[in-house]
Specification:
By secondary structure, the protein is of the alpha+beta class. Strand 1 and strand 2 form a beta hairpin. It is globular, with a radius of gyration of 15 Å.
Length: 179
Amino acid sequence: MHKLTFLLVSILYLSLCEPSYSATSKQSDPIGSSISTLNGIDLVVVTKSTSKMVLMRNGKIMRQYRIALGDRPKGHKLEEGDQRTPEGRYTLDYKKYDSAYYRAIHISYPNDEDQLRANALGINPGGQIMIHGQSPNSSHSARETQQYNWTDGCIAITNQQMDELWGAISTGTPIEIWP
């Protein structure tokens, strides 16, 4: 099956599935793969409208997570402080152990197109968009935290999911962020 067709079918499938809020590996993994089979993820796909992130290898969904975004999740990130998550194709370009949250993986925003748009509009596109775990200062459980959008434009998952993602991807892994 053509990769784009498969990806579209996968996204449609995910949009029809009920979201999983559990922080446990078994319940957040409707596909049934174990942590040891997650190595070598070659694409991460985020669908903002369904609050889902899927980890893919060779066109196959290996894991899916419920995500939290910024307070204004609709639309492409344009400037620093707009509380939006960018949309498009980026790279997971480095891992950050000493994050203010539980670990973080940097998304290569802004790309050249984002920078050109910001320059034309005379605005700062911002940066430091990450996938990260929970805030160490939160009094909410992982389940409660994932039920609302609370980041400044980043993509948040539970700490357990962050551990899985951390081990599953290498720097340079592409990420597609869809509306």
